[in-house]
Structures are given as C-alpha cells and as structure tokens.
Amino acid sequence: MEIFGYPVQAVLSQLVIGLVNGSFYAMLSLGLAIIFGLLNVINLSHGALYMLGAFATWMGLDYLGLSYWAMLILAPLIVGLIGVVIEKTMLRWLYKLDHLYGLLLMIGLASFLEGLLQSFYGASGVSYSAPDALNGAADLGFMVLPVYQAWVVAVSLVVCFATWYAIERTRLGSYLRAGTENPRLVEAFGINVPRLITLTYAFGVGLAGLAGVLAAPTVQVSPQMGSNLIVVVFAVVVIGGLSSIVGAIVTGLVLGVVEALVSLFYPQASATVVFVIMAIVLVLRPAGLFGKER
C-alpha cells in the first residue's frame, strides 16, 4: 500500500520522526512561552541551556559514571540552578528597562556558553548512547517503532500536560500569573513575588535542560546543537502565540509532524516550511493561533 507513491511504512516512519522532533519543539517552546508569558523576557539563550542539559548528561556518564536515569533528574536541576544564577545576577536588573536590553543579554549569554563548550570539546561535539532498557524496537505489524523515540514522545507529552495543568489549573499557577500582572497586590497577601519569578525562570530553563537530556542519545551533542534549533523553536512560539502555553505545546507537535512529512514529499521545502507558516500566520493573525488579540 502506498500514499502519494510512497510506502505506508515510510510515511509512518516520517510521522514518528516528526513526533519526536515535535516533542523537542513543544518542550522548548513551552519553556520560552512560560518565560515570556510570565516574565515578559524573550529568552534567546534557551537553545544554549538546552545544549547544557545534553552536555551535563554526557558529563554525568563519562566523568562521574552516573546513569541516564540519574541524569534525567539531575541535568534539569543543574540547568535550573544555572537559571537561578542568571536571573538573580543579571536578568533581574533589566526587568524595568527596554526589552531590547534583555534580548541582547540573552544573545550574549548564548554566545558565551557555546564558545565556552566549544573551547573544551570542539565543534564536532561528543556522542551519548541510549540506556540498554530503551534500545531496540517494537514490531507493531504495520511498522517498526524504535523504543527510545516512543519514550521521548511519551515523556514530552506527560511533562507538557503536567506543566499546563500546574500553570492553568492550580493555585500556584494563579499566583504566578497574578504576580506578574500586579506584584504589589500579590505581595500584600504575603507572597514572595521575586522568589516566584526566579523559580519560574528556573523552571522554564529546566524544561530546556530536560529536552537536552532526551535529545542527547538521538543527536550529536555539540555546542551548536541549540543555536541550530532555537530559531525554529522561536518560530513555533510565534505561530502558537508568544504567551500561550497550549499554543506552544500543540503548535510544536503539529509543526514537527508537518516538517517531517514535507521533508518526505517535497524535501526542498523542509527547511523553510515552518517559516512560511509563520509568515502566513503573522499576516492573518499577528497574535498567533492561540494568542490573545490586544
């Protein structure tokens, strides 16, 4: 059986690849949307922090002998702590200034981190293998599904849903939203708003670190792995709506699948299809598909 002249197995394989890429897009764009929506900061260092998560995973295995399962917890915490340092020592002083200053800071920070890792490990990077428990593939009859790819999609969906629920359906999430809109009123109820902001930024970049852990066994871990991805992820956030949590998740997953299918049926357009969609969305709906018009 064929679809537009391609075997069904080939199309399904591309769908799996698209879901995996979409999972990374969703997690990274979710972190960007959280930071922008609650802190009003365009965090263009997000790709570099994703790269740090992948390198932290490799270092934990190579230098300390830790397992993938340990780094699945430790790497996001490490990146989150780095985010705390960034927010407290640099970003906090720029909230009342023009957004351009924060944007320039994030670009400079990303360049510094990439250059630092490149000076130690070179441009080619290092490799990291998936754990034995997640190696191999499952024969579903109509296709062969790699176990690790299925694991990445499952973890990403759980994390994305849990994050959405925490922000949109819990008291903590309401405190976060209220603290960014009217911090003085929230502080009057005894809530430490600066601490909430710090933890929000740490959580957002921690999501990037977790995406780096999940990506480490599937890509070559290199200093440029984040910069190659962040442009696409930023386009995903713009399409979904800069401050929309749901938009980041849904758009990331859908565009990952669209990009993969386009690379199969019309490879020449695979590198630009996301940006073409972004241009169309900005013309028709500048706030994004899920964003709120002001």
Percent range for β-strand residues = under 5%
Number of helices: 11
Shape: globular
CATH architecture: Orthogonal Bundle
CATH topology: ABC transporter involved in vitamin B12 uptake, BtuC
Topology, number of strands:
4
Described by strand count, sense and barrel closure, the largest sheet is: 2 strands, antiparallel
Query: Any idea how many domains?
Result: 1
Report the helical percentage.
55-70%
Distance between the termini: 49 Å
Helix-strand string: EEHHHHEEHHHHHHH
Furnish the topology, listing elements before pairings:
Layout (H helix, E strand, L loop, with lengths): L1 E2 L2 E2 H32 L6 H17 L5 H22 L9 H23 L15 E3 L4 E3 H23 L1 H11 L1 H5 L5 H23 L11 H14 L4 H21 L7 H12 L10
Helix pairs in contact: 1-5, 1-8, 1-9, 1-10, 2-3, 2-4, 2-8, 3-8, 5-6, 6-8, 9-10, 9-11
3D structure, described in words:
The protein is mostly helical and 294 residues long. The chain has one domain (2-284): ABC transporter involved in vitamin B12 uptake, BtuC (Orthogonal Bundle). Helix content is 69%, strand content 3%. The chain is built from 11 helices and 4 strands, in the order E-E-H-H-H-H-E-E-H-H-H-H-H-H-H. It has helices spanning 8-39, 46-62, 68-89, 99-121, 147-169, 171-181, 183-187, 193-215, 227-240, 245-265, 273-284, and strands at 2-3, 6-7, 137-139, 144-146. The strands form 2 sheets. Strands 1-2 form a two-stranded antiparallel sheet. It has a two-stranded antiparallel sheet with strand order 3-4. The mean pLDDT is 88.
